[in-house]
Design goal:
The chain has 128 residues and is mostly beta strands. The protein has no helices and eleven strands. Helix content is 0%, strand content 52%.
């Protein structure tokens, strides 16, 4: 079992920045993926960024150049630094965890259903 708790969401204006955090606790695994997803009202949950236990990252096209995912293994905390935010980034942001199968890379395009553990989400609202 893995427990995930997100924080850091809020309301910002276009062009602003936010840093999301996700504190993990529970069982420890040696091979895993962690990801950030977001869900806007009326839309499906979509992957934003993913990272593996070695720090290899993957980003959705919408996030490239603006978002940075990072993992502090010592603190068991996942981060998402977001800059140049725009109203299209508005939504509930979730962190997620899954075991990594052999050498299969962790990808931002992995389906949400592939992730076994989820946080409760943190709201990000960007106004124009």
């Amino acid at each position: 079992q893995v427990q995930l708790v997100e924080s850091g969401g809020g309301s910002v204006q276009s062009g602003g920045s936010l840093r999301l955090s996700c504190a993990a606790s529970g069982d420890t695994y040696s091979r895993y993926c962690m990801g950030w997803f977001r869900q806007a009202p009326g839309k499906e949950r979509e992957g934003v960024a993913a990272i593996d236990m070695d720090g290899t990252t993957s980003y959705a096209d919408s996030a490239k150049g603006r978002f940075t995912i990072s993992l502090d293994n010592a603190k068991k905390t996942l981060y998402l630094q977001m800059i140049s935010l725009n109203p299209e980034d508005t939504g509930m942001y979730y962190c997620a965890f899954k075991l990594r199968w052999r050498s299969t890379p962790c990808s931002a395009t992995d389906r949400a259903s592939a992730y076994a553990y989820w946080g409760q989400g943190t709201q990000v609202t960007v106004s124009s």
